[in-house]
Amino acid sequence: VSSYSTFFSGWRPFLFPLGMRFFIRMLAEEKNEFLGQKLTLCSKLCFAIGGAPKEVAASATAFFLQIYLLDVAQINAFQASMVLFIGKAWGAVSDPVVGFLITKSRWTKIGRLMPWMVGCTPFLVVSYFYLWFVPPFISGRFFWYLGFYCLYQTLITCFHVPYSALTMFLSTDQKERDSATAYRMTMEVLGTLVGAAIQGQIVASAHTLKHCPPHNMSASYLGNSSGAEIVTRLVRSQDYLTEKQISFHQGFILVMRHGPYLTLTAAFLFITVAIQLVQSNFVLFCTYAADLRDHFQNIVLTILVSAVISIPLWQWFLQRFGKKTAAFCGITWIMPFTMMLVFIPNVVVAYVVAVSSGLSVAASLLLPWSMLPDVVDDFRLANPYCKGHEAIFYSFYVFFTKFAAGISLGVSTLCLE
C-alpha cells in the first residue's frame, strides 16, 4: 500500500503525451469523409484506445474498492455497503441527466460529444485520486469516500455516455460499427487487465504488511492513466446538424416505447448485474472463503487474459451464427463453471474456471454494445423524424444496469455485517 503513489507517478509523463498524440492525429483527419465509407484501421484503433484508461480505473474499483474500504480504510461493512450502493445509484441517476444535457448542448467545431469527454477528464483524475486516499481523520471517512465516489461516478458518466454514443457516428455500415466495437472492447478489456494486474499486485503485497499508514494512497493511477483519456479519438464523427429535432421529452417517450430497446435492456440487465456481482465479491471470496489468498490476483489476470483472447472469437461467432445465438452461448457457458468453484475450492479448478469464465466475460462486454447500435438503427427507421437522441439509448441503458448493480452490490456487502 505504501508504494501506491510512487509506483504510478512514472506513468504520467508517458501516457499523457501518448494520449495527446492520438488526439491531435484524429483531429487532423479530414472531416468531409462519408459516414458509409470503410473505416481505416487507424480510426478504429484511435477510437478503441480512448476507452482503455477509463477501464483501468473501473477495473480497480470493481475488483478492489470493496476490500479496500473494509481492510484499508477500515470502515464497517454497513458503511461500505452504503458507499457502494449510493455511489452506484448516484451514477445511475447521472446517466439520463448527462444524456439530457448532451441533447441540449450546442454544436461546436469538434462536435457535440467531444467537449464533454475532454472537459471532464481533469476533474475525473482528481476525484479518482482522492477516492483511494486515506484521510488522517477517522470519524468522517464514510462521508469522504461517499462524496468522492459519487463525484467519480458523475464524472465517469460525463465521459462514458458521449464516448459510447460516438459509435453511432462512426459509420452507417453495421459491419464497420461492429468491427469498431470489437476493437473498442478488446482495448477496454486490456485496460481492465492492466488495472487488475497493477492494483492486484499492490493489494497482494499489502496483505504481507502489518500496518497500512494513513497517508498511503492507491491510485495516482487513473490520475496518471487518465491523461490518455484525452485520446478521445474523434474518429471522423459527423452529427446530424440539418435534420429536424424534437424535444427531449418526446424523444424519451418514443425510446421507452421502442420494443427492441426494452427487450435488449431487460435481457442484458440481469446478465450485467450477475457479472458485476461476481466481480465485486470475487476477491473477498478467494481471500476468506476459498482459501485462495495467494492466488486471487493471478486468477483475476487469467480471467481477463482469457477475455481479451476470446473477443475476436466472439466477433467471428456473431458474424457466423448471429448475435442472439452468440449471446445465449456466451452467457450460459459461465454457469456450470462458477458452481464448480463453489463446491470444489481447489487451485487447479480455480484456474480452469478462470479460463472458462473469461469467455463469458468477453461475451457480456461485447454483445450489448454491438447490438445497441442495431436497435438505434431500427428506431431511426421507425421514427425517421426523430434525430439527435442517440445519447438517450446509451444513457438509459447504463442507468438501468448501474442502478440494478448498485442495489445488488449494496445488499451483498450489507450481508457481511
TrEMBL record:
Mode of membrane association: Multi-pass membrane protein
Listed Pfam families: MFS_2
Database matches in SUPFAM superfamilies: MFS general substrate transporter
Chief location category: membrane
Annotated compartments: Membrane
This protein's record includes keyword NAD: no
UniProt keyword annotations, A-Z: Membrane, Transmembrane, Transmembrane helix
Keyword hit for Transmembrane: yes
GO (cellular component) term, any one: plasma membrane
Membrane-spanning ranges: 82-101, 113-131, 143-170, 261-279, 299-318, 325-344, 391-411
Gene Ontology terms describing biological process: carbohydrate transport
Molecular-function GO terms, alphabetical: sphingolipid transporter activity; symporter activity
Entry similarity comment: Belongs to the major facilitator superfamily.
UniProt-recorded name of the protein: MFSD2 lysolipid transporter B, sphingolipid
Species the sequence originates in: Sander lucioperca
Lineage of the organism: Eukaryota, Metazoa, Chordata, Craniata, Vertebrata
